[in-house]
Amino acid sequence: MSECRSLDEALNATYDNLDILSHRDVAAFWAVVPKFLGGRGGRRQDDKNDNQRMFHQFDKIITKSMEEIKLYDARDMSTLAISLAKIMDKVGKSGNRKTKGSPQQILHDMLIGNNLEFKQFIFDHITCASIPILREFKARDLANFIYAYGLAEHTLKFDDGSTFFDILADQVISFEELDGFKPQHLSNIAWAYATTEESNPKLFKKVAGHIISLDNLDGFKPQELSNIVWAYATARESHPELLKKVADHIITRSLDRFNGQDCSNTVWAYATAKESHPKLFRKVADHVVSLSNLNEFKPQNLSNTVWAFATAGESSPKLFKKVAHHIVSLDNLNDFKPQELSNTAWSYASAGESHPALFQKLSDAAIQRQNEFTEQHVANFLWANATNGQVDKNLFSSLVLAVKANLGKCNEQELANVAWAYSVANVDAPSVFNDEFINACLQKENDFIVENLRQLHQWQLWQKELDSNVRLPSSLQQKCYDAFISRVPEPSKLQDDVISQLSSMDLELEEEVLTKSGYRIDALVEVNGKKIGVEVDGPSHFLGRNRTGSTILKHRQVTNRENIPVVSVPYWEWNKLGKYGKNRDKKEKYIRDLLGLSDQQ
């Protein structure tokens, strides 16, 4: 079979000799089919008679395979299962079915069916035939067999609530040692259970224990390492020792053989599992930054990579800059799914990374794809833009319909995030913020955490800015207000130095003033009979030199609701004047200029 140079040649040879071929020969035929479907000899002319002949030949071979499956030995059954799974995986993707009558379309209709009925029949048939001989499966055969079920995403449940995956796990566990399982086998087994969402702690513990016991992991390829940690994170199987062993191995090796998906899956796994390993993240970041381009990173790889760094709290401005420049350079973002657009924006905002050009690119794509957004996508996307101070009014206006369509499905955090984001952007949206929104908040009232309540308080202030009649019930308003003022002030050295300078001047000064609206102003001074708020804005108030959404909102609402103009002392301007407690003359001049006192004695 390996000598055949085309699918037609393999198909004809198998069909013509079907009566005399061994089970191993038939299994070998199915094993070569995926190779030809990948582009080697898979093209055919659209000839009706030829298509009918091909359908008949395939049908005859699969029928014989299923009729005699109980006669297959362990090795041949494993080969048949993995081969059919690979074929189903290839032809199951709509883009690979091509035209009607093509091998891809014929195999899809024959092996999968419109409602997966044929795939289910085939794998149920293989399952029943395999159970009596599972003990005969060697390590390689068993690993490939499990991988086949993972690739086919097929799970057979029994009357007692157990599944076939439980039986397969018991068979792996029955091996006293797992030395017969190669790295790829272990990777494929873990991947299969994670992909099918089949929980089996004993199996994961057995595999983890074996890997930890190895002297080194030099036999594992990058994809196998990344798939293993991905599987443990996805399956929510906590094995810190395993993750530490893999990370410690990776940081001592070159990542030149790690492709985009390997890098992405690795850091995603550690972030998802909440396993801290700063050296691993630095290693991956340095590698990604060193690449000449990121063309091998698919949209999901890009999104998951920055998501992982943001979630793990691992700072890497160069990596974020590299990814941002790559995305901005793309002709379009048509290949990005809504979740990838949303997660990318969320990651930059959460990591405190600006990149306005990236946000503009993402926003343009989001507006075009808004009908595909779920409530989580739209809430996270708007929150990210607002957090980064990217208040593109066109974006917020354009996404009103998407917000309205998803409002009823929003959870408490999504409701608060949307409300807060529009408050920052200051884009009126009466079709969203109305009685329906109030009712949604009331239904979730007991679920709001403190931060959500604070966001809703700022939204309520915004409604008053707009002279809107939309109001939360008084009891919920009070709860939001109490949460908002509950923050304990933590003055920084920067703030102390500015206050010290203000105190040394002939000014009426109040510190940490709590306003009626609930905001605390760093300092309140009187100039020519008028109160002016002085805000000492440290690094957390800026992304680069642009104010964050929180800072924008505070300055605006204090001015509008309290009728107190606000002036800002940016940290970089103050730091230029000298160390804390030094250069008092320069600092006094700065303050006088800021408050409009430079011409007064």
What's the arrangement of strands in the largest beta sheet?
A: 1-2-3-6
Instruction: Enumerate how many helices there are, as a single number.
Output: 29
* Biggest sheet statistics: 4 strands, mixed
Q: What percentage of residues falls in helices of 4 or more residues?
A: 55-70%
Can you walk through the features of this model?
It is a single chain. The protein is mainly α. Among the domains are: 365-485, no CATH class; 493-595, 3-Layer(aba) Sandwich (Trna Endonuclease, Chain: A, domain 1). Helix content is 60%, strand content 5%. It contains 29 helices and six strands. The protein has helices at 7-16, 23-37, 48-67, 74-92, 103-111, 117-130, 139-152, 164-173, 183-195, 201-213, 222-234, 240-250, 260-272, 278-290, 299-312, 317-329, 338-350, 356-368, 375-387, 393-398, 400-406, 412-425, 435-443, 450-465, 474-484, 493-503, 549-562, 571-576, 584-595; strands at 508-514, 520-527, 530-537, 542-543, 546-547, 566-570. The strands form two sheets. It has a four-stranded mixed beta sheet with strand order 1-2-3-6, sandwiched between helices. A two-stranded antiparallel ribbon has the order 4-5. The protein is elongated, with a radius of gyration of 31 Å. The relative contact order is 0.04. Mean pLDDT is 94; it is low at 40-44.
